[in-house]
Design a protein that fits this description.
mainly alpha, two-stranded antiparallel sheet
Length: 151
């Protein structure tokens, strides 16, 4: 009699496993056509075209339209690094010497939680020094070749 109870429990455990497997198979069979339907609605070629369009920056007069940065070597590094924390306008509206930009980076690292830029720091400073250095002239260039007339 004890063996019958043990066999019965083993049999019930086997039946329980078989029922679970049948449930999984049933769900897969029901969802399989739905997966093909969804996949057929996705235009993969359109997705590739969109990716290509997004990757190409729009540049007008040497300026990246999206960020306002001067397009030059390493501008994308500056764009990605600086815009991670603040508006790029904080870069484009300022100018400084290489040392001034370095001091600003150190200040941001000490007070604003800017991460260590590693080897990228030199590249960023190269870009900023070249493109956002103090101007030698005043607010506007002096007038040249003007024909004055008497009143």
């Amino acid at each position: 009699m004890g063996e019958d109870i043990g066999n019965r429990e083993e049999l019930l455990a086997i039946v329980d496993r078989v029922v679970k497997i049948i449930r999984v198979v049933f769900i897969v069979v029901l969802l399989y056509p739905f997966a093909f339907y969804v996949a057929s609605k996705i235009d993969f070629e359109k997705e590739k075209i969109i990716e290509k369009v997004v990757e190409i920056p729009i540049v007008e007069n040497g300026i990246d339209v999206e960020s306002g940065l001067i397009v030059d070597q390493h501008y994308e590094l500056v764009k990605g690094t600086c815009s991670a924390c603040h508006s790029i306008n904080l870069v484009t509206q300022n100018s400084a010497t290489r040392e001034g930009w370095k001091d600003l980076i150190v200040w941001m690292q000490k007070t604003q939680k800017l991460w260590d830029l590693g080897d990228d720091e030199v590249l960023i400073l190269d870009y900023l020094e070249k493109n956002y250095a103090p101007k030698e002239q005043g607010r506007r260039a002096p007038l040249k070749d003007i024909e004055w007339y008497e009143l």
